[in-house]
Protein backbone atom coordinates (compact mmCIF):
# COMPACT_ATOMS: atom_id res chain seq x y z
CA UNK A 1 0.00 0.00 0.00
CA UNK A 2 1.39 3.38 -0.98
CA UNK A 3 1.70 6.01 1.78
CA UNK A 4 -1.08 8.57 2.05
CA UNK A 5 -0.47 11.93 0.41
CA UNK A 6 0.32 14.80 2.79
CA UNK A 7 -2.47 17.28 3.40
CA UNK A 8 -2.50 21.05 3.84
CA UNK A 9 -5.37 23.14 5.18
CA UNK A 10 -5.42 26.69 3.79
CA UNK A 11 -7.41 29.29 5.76
CA UNK A 12 -8.27 32.28 3.57
CA UNK A 13 -9.97 35.59 4.37
CA UNK A 14 -10.52 37.13 0.92
CA UNK A 15 -10.51 35.08 -2.26
CA UNK A 16 -7.80 37.00 -4.08
CA UNK A 17 -5.23 36.69 -1.27
CA UNK A 18 -4.43 33.07 -2.01
CA UNK A 19 -1.41 30.75 -1.92
CA UNK A 20 -0.06 32.26 -5.12
CA UNK A 21 3.38 30.96 -5.99
CA UNK A 22 3.51 28.78 -2.86
CA UNK A 23 0.84 26.48 -4.27
CA UNK A 24 3.06 24.88 -6.92
CA UNK A 25 5.77 23.65 -4.51
CA UNK A 26 3.10 22.06 -2.33
CA UNK A 27 1.41 20.33 -5.24
CA UNK A 28 4.79 19.22 -6.61
CA UNK A 29 5.32 17.40 -3.31
CA UNK A 30 1.99 15.64 -3.66
CA UNK A 31 0.07 17.69 -1.11
CA UNK A 32 -3.70 17.51 -1.15
CA UNK A 33 -4.86 21.09 -0.54
CA UNK A 34 -8.09 21.97 1.23
CA UNK A 35 -9.15 25.61 1.04
CA UNK A 36 -11.47 26.94 3.74
CA UNK A 37 -12.88 30.45 4.01
CA UNK A 38 -12.30 31.29 7.67
CA UNK A 39 -15.18 33.77 7.89
CA UNK A 40 -17.77 31.09 7.07
CA UNK A 41 -16.00 28.05 8.52
CA UNK A 42 -17.61 25.96 11.22
CA UNK A 43 -14.96 25.93 13.92
CA UNK A 44 -13.49 23.83 15.43
CA UNK A 45 -12.04 22.22 12.33
CA UNK A 46 -11.02 18.59 12.89
CA UNK A 47 -8.73 18.70 9.85
CA UNK A 48 -6.77 21.53 11.49
CA UNK A 49 -5.50 19.00 14.01
CA UNK A 50 -4.72 16.19 11.58
CA UNK A 51 -3.33 17.96 8.48
CA UNK A 52 0.39 17.94 7.80
CA UNK A 53 0.48 21.71 7.28
CA UNK A 54 -1.80 24.60 8.20
CA UNK A 55 -1.50 27.91 6.33
CA UNK A 56 -3.32 31.07 7.45
CA UNK A 57 -3.35 33.70 4.70
CA UNK A 58 -3.75 37.48 4.61
CA UNK A 59 -6.78 39.74 4.70
CA UNK A 60 -7.88 43.34 5.22
CA UNK A 61 -9.23 43.07 8.79
CA UNK A 62 -7.45 43.37 12.13
CA UNK A 63 -6.89 40.73 14.79
CA UNK A 64 -8.52 43.15 17.25
CA UNK A 65 -11.77 43.30 15.19
CA UNK A 66 -13.33 40.33 17.01
CA UNK A 67 -16.55 42.18 17.85
CA UNK A 68 -17.31 42.79 14.17
CA UNK A 69 -15.88 39.45 13.02
CA UNK A 70 -16.39 36.83 15.76
CA UNK A 71 -14.73 34.09 13.71
CA UNK A 72 -11.37 35.72 14.50
CA UNK A 73 -11.53 34.33 18.04
CA UNK A 74 -12.28 30.86 16.68
CA UNK A 75 -9.44 31.04 14.16
CA UNK A 76 -6.95 32.20 16.78
CA UNK A 77 -8.02 29.34 19.04
CA UNK A 78 -7.58 26.93 16.12
CA UNK A 79 -4.05 28.27 15.62
CA UNK A 80 -3.36 28.13 19.36
CA UNK A 81 -4.24 24.45 19.48
CA UNK A 82 -2.08 23.78 16.44
CA UNK A 83 0.84 25.50 18.16
CA UNK A 84 0.28 23.55 21.37
CA UNK A 85 0.52 20.35 19.33
CA UNK A 86 3.76 21.64 17.73
CA UNK A 87 2.43 20.89 14.26
CA UNK A 88 3.70 22.75 11.15
CA UNK A 89 1.99 26.08 10.56
CA UNK A 90 2.64 29.11 8.35
CA UNK A 91 1.01 32.51 8.80
CA UNK A 92 1.21 35.24 6.16
CA UNK A 93 0.36 38.89 6.94
CA UNK A 94 -2.97 38.66 8.84
CA UNK A 95 -2.13 34.99 9.36
CA UNK A 96 1.19 36.00 10.98
CA UNK A 97 -0.65 38.47 13.21
CA UNK A 98 -3.07 35.73 14.28
CA UNK A 99 -0.09 33.48 14.95
CA UNK A 100 1.41 36.21 17.14
CA UNK A 101 -1.90 36.71 18.96
CA UNK A 102 -2.26 32.97 19.55
CA UNK A 103 1.19 33.07 21.18
CA UNK A 104 0.10 35.86 23.51
CA UNK A 105 1.59 38.87 21.71
CA UNK A 106 -0.10 42.24 21.24
CA UNK A 107 -1.33 43.07 17.71
CA UNK A 108 -2.08 46.72 17.05
CA UNK A 109 -2.27 49.48 14.40
CA UNK A 110 1.25 50.44 13.39
CA UNK A 111 2.50 53.89 14.35
CA UNK A 112 4.65 54.33 11.23
CA UNK A 113 1.91 54.36 8.61
CA UNK A 114 0.85 51.73 6.14
CA UNK A 115 3.60 49.64 4.59
CA UNK A 116 2.37 49.03 1.05
CA UNK A 117 4.65 48.25 -1.86
CA UNK A 118 7.97 46.65 -2.70
CA UNK A 119 11.08 46.80 -0.52
CA UNK A 120 13.75 44.43 0.81
CA UNK A 121 13.69 42.81 4.22
CA UNK A 122 16.79 42.77 6.40
CA UNK A 123 18.07 39.66 8.14
CA UNK A 124 18.04 39.40 11.90
CA UNK A 125 21.40 39.07 13.70
CA UNK A 126 23.53 36.16 12.53
CA UNK A 127 22.79 34.17 15.68
CA UNK A 128 19.15 33.77 14.65
CA UNK A 129 19.43 33.45 10.87
CA UNK A 130 17.55 30.57 9.24
CA UNK A 131 19.14 29.08 6.09
CA UNK A 132 15.75 28.36 4.52
CA UNK A 133 14.85 32.09 4.61
CA UNK A 134 17.99 33.04 2.68
CA UNK A 135 16.33 33.19 -0.78
CA UNK A 136 14.01 35.96 0.46
CA UNK A 137 16.97 37.88 1.88
CA UNK A 138 19.00 37.82 -1.34
CA UNK A 139 20.79 41.10 -2.16
CA UNK A 140 18.73 43.21 -4.52
CA UNK A 141 15.49 41.27 -3.88
CA UNK A 142 12.36 43.20 -2.90
CA UNK A 143 9.35 41.47 -1.34
CA UNK A 144 5.78 42.74 -1.29
CA UNK A 145 4.24 44.45 1.73
CA UNK A 146 0.63 45.37 2.38
CA UNK A 147 -0.27 46.00 6.00
CA UNK A 148 -1.07 48.71 8.50
CA UNK A 149 -1.01 46.60 11.66
CA UNK A 150 1.99 45.19 13.43
CA UNK A 151 2.71 43.09 16.52
CA UNK A 152 5.11 42.58 19.37
CA UNK A 153 7.49 39.67 19.05
CA UNK A 154 5.72 36.74 20.70
CA UNK A 155 7.25 35.18 23.83
CA UNK A 156 9.67 32.44 22.85
CA UNK A 157 9.72 33.44 19.16
CA UNK A 158 12.91 34.01 17.20
CA UNK A 159 13.03 37.22 15.10
CA UNK A 160 14.17 36.54 11.55
CA UNK A 161 13.71 39.71 9.49
CA UNK A 162 12.77 43.38 9.66
CA UNK A 163 12.37 46.57 7.66
CA UNK A 164 13.15 50.12 8.70
CA UNK A 165 9.43 50.82 8.98
CA UNK A 166 8.40 47.79 11.05
CA UNK A 167 10.76 45.57 13.00
CA UNK A 168 8.80 42.33 13.08
CA UNK A 169 8.63 41.00 9.52
CA UNK A 170 9.34 37.31 10.16
CA UNK A 171 9.59 35.07 13.20
CA UNK A 172 9.73 31.38 13.95
CA UNK A 173 8.75 29.22 16.88
CA UNK A 174 10.66 25.98 17.29
CA UNK A 175 11.01 24.03 14.06
CA UNK A 176 7.29 24.03 13.27
CA UNK A 177 5.84 27.58 13.13
CA UNK A 178 6.63 30.55 10.90
CA UNK A 179 5.04 33.97 10.66
CA UNK A 180 5.70 36.30 7.70
CA UNK A 181 4.32 39.84 7.88
CA UNK A 182 5.19 40.41 4.22
CA UNK A 183 3.85 38.58 1.15
CA UNK A 184 6.24 36.16 -0.59
CA UNK A 185 3.47 34.57 -2.65
CA UNK A 186 2.41 37.32 -5.05
CA UNK A 187 2.85 37.65 -8.82
CA UNK A 188 2.40 40.73 -11.00
CA UNK A 189 -0.72 39.38 -12.79
CA UNK A 190 -2.41 38.24 -9.56
CA UNK A 191 -1.81 41.60 -7.90
CA UNK A 192 -4.25 43.15 -10.38
CA UNK A 193 -7.05 41.62 -8.28
CA UNK A 194 -5.56 43.18 -5.14
CA UNK A 195 -5.62 46.63 -6.72
CA UNK A 196 -9.34 46.25 -7.33
CA UNK A 197 -10.17 44.59 -4.01
CA UNK A 198 -8.23 47.18 -2.00
CA UNK A 199 -9.05 50.21 -4.18
CA UNK A 200 -10.51 52.23 -1.29
CA UNK A 201 -7.46 51.61 0.90
CA UNK A 202 -5.10 52.67 -1.89
CA UNK A 203 -7.08 55.84 -2.48
CA UNK A 204 -7.07 56.71 1.22
CA UNK A 205 -3.31 56.06 1.41
CA UNK A 206 -2.61 58.20 -1.68
CA UNK A 207 -0.94 55.29 -3.49
CA UNK A 208 -1.53 54.91 -7.22
CA UNK A 209 -2.15 51.58 -8.92
CA UNK A 210 0.23 52.65 -11.68
CA UNK A 211 3.13 52.95 -9.23
CA UNK A 212 2.42 49.52 -7.74
CA UNK A 213 2.00 47.95 -11.17
CA UNK A 214 5.29 49.36 -12.42
CA UNK A 215 7.13 48.14 -9.33
CA UNK A 216 5.53 44.70 -9.60
CA UNK A 217 6.71 44.28 -13.19
CA UNK A 218 10.22 45.08 -11.99
CA UNK A 219 10.35 43.01 -8.80
CA UNK A 220 7.77 40.20 -8.99
CA UNK A 221 9.64 37.80 -11.31
CA UNK A 222 12.64 37.61 -8.98
CA UNK A 223 10.37 37.21 -5.96
CA UNK A 224 8.53 34.34 -7.64
CA UNK A 225 11.78 32.42 -8.08
CA UNK A 226 12.93 33.20 -4.55
CA UNK A 227 9.57 32.20 -3.08
CA UNK A 228 9.75 28.78 -4.74
CA UNK A 229 13.23 28.23 -3.30
CA UNK A 230 12.19 29.42 0.15
CA UNK A 231 9.08 27.24 0.21
CA UNK A 232 10.95 24.09 -0.74
CA UNK A 233 13.73 24.73 1.76
CA UNK A 234 11.26 25.45 4.56
CA UNK A 235 9.22 22.33 3.78
CA UNK A 236 12.43 20.31 3.88
CA UNK A 237 13.07 21.82 7.31
CA UNK A 238 9.69 21.18 8.91
CA UNK A 239 8.50 17.92 7.34
Structure description:
- The protein has 239 residues and is an alpha/beta fold.
- It has one domain: 3-Layer(aba) Sandwich (Rossmann fold), CATH 3.40.50.
- It is 34% helix and 21% strand.
- The protein has helices spanning 23-28, 46-50, 71-84, 94-102, 188-197, 199-205, 209-238, and strands spanning 7-12, 32-37, 53-56, 89-92, 107-109, 115-119, 122-123, 143-147, 149-151, 158-162, 170-173, 177-180.
- The strands form 3 sheets. It has an 8-stranded mixed β-sheet with strand order 2-1-3-4-12-11-10-7, covered by helices on one side. A two-stranded antiparallel ribbon has the order 5-9. Strands 6-8 form a two-stranded antiparallel ribbon.
- A hairpin with a 3-residue loop joins strand 11 and strand 12.
- Amino- and carboxy-terminal Cα gap: 21 Å
Instruction: Return the structural class.
Output: alpha/beta
Shape: globular
Q: DSSP strand (E) fraction?
A: 15-25%
CATH architecture: 3-Layer(aba) Sandwich
**Strand order of the main beta sheet, please?**
2-1-3-4-12-11-10-7
**CATH H-level superfamily title:** Class I glutamine amidotransferase (GATase) domain
The biggest beta sheet, please? 8 strands, mixed
Q: Could you state the order of secondary-structure elements as H and E? A: EHEHEHEHEEEEEEEEHHH
Measured as a percent range, the helix fraction is 25-40%
CATH uppermost class? Alpha Beta
| Total helical segments | 7
Q: What is the total domain count?
A: 1
Radius of gyration: 17 Å
Count of DSSP E strands?
A: 12
Question: How confident is the prediction overall: mean pLDDT?
Answer: 96
- Any idea of the CATH topology? Rossmann fold
Weakly predicted, low-confidence segments: none
Amino acid sequence: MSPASPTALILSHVAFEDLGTLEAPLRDRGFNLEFVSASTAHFPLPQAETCDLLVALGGPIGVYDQQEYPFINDEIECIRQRLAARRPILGICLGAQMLAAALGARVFPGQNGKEIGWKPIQAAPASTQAPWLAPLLSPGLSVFHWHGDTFDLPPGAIPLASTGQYANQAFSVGDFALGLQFHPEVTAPELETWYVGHACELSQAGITVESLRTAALEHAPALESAAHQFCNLWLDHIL
